[in-house]
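Internal tracking record. Fields below are filled automatically when a chain is submitted to the structure queue. Please do not edit lines marked as system-generated. If the sequence contains nonstandard residues, flag them in the REMARKS field before resubmitting.
Queue: standard
Priority: normal
Entity type: single polypeptide chain
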Amino acid sequence: MNKQLTITGLAVGAIPLGGCAAGTAASPSVQSAATQAATQAATQGPAAGGKAAGAGTASGKPAGTPPEAAAMVCSAEARGNVAKILGLPSPPKASWSWNGSVYACHYALSDGTLTMSVQVYPAATAAQAGAAALAGSLDAKPIQGLSNLGLPGYQSEAGAVVFAKDNMVLHVDATTMPATAGINHVRRPAFAYQMATTILACWSEH
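SYSTEM-GENERATED OUTPUT FOLLOWS
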């Protein structure tokens, strides 16, 4: 059954999707909930091209910011791909959070909420173990064959997809969405899988 789900996800790839551009991901500094809410209200969502103010480092980046790859789940390209896959008239609004180890992006859609999160681990081995543990809690089964892209990957029939790559674990959660979503009537597991692969493609490019 799991193999059938991933094949369905691959079929959605016929829709032309946006590419990845370095520096377009939202990269907020660590903020209090109140400060973050005020910042997002002022910008109407995560910044597509800049970084929030924060203490500087030797590299010139604010201290406490997530890896750029993690923040790609809330990038302009990711929001654009959600719109293209579901056939939305415009990219959806999204809100983000970063607690020092997990970057999460929440998409408020008319069909429900899509959440894509990335947990950053100290090493790849820890990420693989974390992905397996998360998959177990979600009743997500290993993705077999070419559909796993050569990575530890898991998928549930409810619409959750988990992948481990390097020292990060990507979790796409579409479980609150209906069985099919958008004008393209994309099946929930296929939508989650397709969004996961678009993020992984961005990670591979950078």
